[in-house]
């Protein structure tokens, strides 16, 4: 009896290995979540930017293009997740329907519903892939049927749960903008630098409003802070790579010397409450933009699209000079000035040494 159990466990482990089904934090929490953010960027976010350009320029064609891009949000996320999970082609293409169903039924918390349902469906699809002689029928049939049924059963509840958590964070930030500004800014900023997706987290929770502004501040503090603090080592290439790309490039250096992460994290704790309590900066654009920082200037563009939406709804009269100053101060000036200043005593004390921030080494 004991030998049969061991044989079954060994056979099952071998089956999972053959199907490349790996239950790990890296596979789901880093690879899949990060890929989902790219799917969001390639649909909802870029569609919003294109539509905004069309609105401002009065070009209906751009508005339509942006609308079509945004309508593909669910499928784009699902395919991105499936790609990260190394799904075979038939499984990957079948996820288009699954993503559409999960995102629609998930409502305001659609991104989280898509993530959960797609991860489960992808692994199920991989398990049945190429196990029969009529794979072209069986694999898409099981993948789509299982994914849609899971969406119908669980996506609404997952969406409501995600929305409730996001709403609680936003409510707490409105109630206590100073302390929650610190908390949200530091956590989301750290997530951006870590090999996980701050954009996907913000999208999954629907993080907008003051909380979205705090999240944006934290992300910008990390990106712009590292870019300026390491300018001596990385020059202009590093400035643009980190300031318009991602501070995740410093992750290897952080592992070697965690102290280099302290200055931009302190600035996150400063910029967050400045955004919420001093300027009242709100991210009323797409929630995913709250976790993008200055990456491709997506975060600031998200704030701008939120302003336009507020103007159209009558909640805001016009975009003022003080609005622009607040945005530039939070996203660029505060991290660009404070981070290198805070780094000076660290350098003098030897906590940050020569080459510790070098992206080439």
Can you summarize the main beta sheet? Answer: none
**Helix and strand string, N-terminal first?**
HHHHHHHHHHHHHHHH
Q: How many strands? A: 0
In round numbers, the mean pLDDT is 91
Task: Indicate the structural class.
Answer: mainly alpha
Total domain count = 2
Silhouette: globular
Describe this structure as you would to a colleague.
With 361 residues, the protein is mainly alpha-helical. It folds into 2 domains: 17-163, no CATH class; 176-348, no CATH class. 78% of the residues lie in helices and 0% in strands. The protein contains 16 helices and no strands. The chain has helices at residues 2-18, 25-57, 60-71, 73-84, 89-106, 110-128, 135-175, 177-193, 198-205, 209-229, 231-243, 251-256, 262-278, 287-290, 298-313, 321-348. Helix 6 packs across helix 9. The radius of gyration is 22 Å and the shape is globular. The protein starts with a helix and ends in a 13-residue tail after the last helix.
Brief overview, please?
The chain is mostly helical and 361 residues long.
Architecture blueprint of SSEs:
Elements: H1 2-18, H2 25-57, H3 60-71, H4 73-84, H5 89-106, H6 110-128, H7 135-175, H8 177-193, H9 198-205, H10 209-229, H11 231-243, H12 251-256, H13 262-278, H14 287-290, H15 298-313, H16 321-348
Helix pairs in contact: 2-3, 2-4, 2-9, 2-15, 4-5, 4-6, 5-6, 5-7, 6-7, 6-9, 7-8, 7-10, 8-9, 8-10, 8-13, 10-11, 10-13, 10-16, 13-16
Primary descriptors:
361 residues; mainly alpha; 2 domains; 16 helices; 78% helix
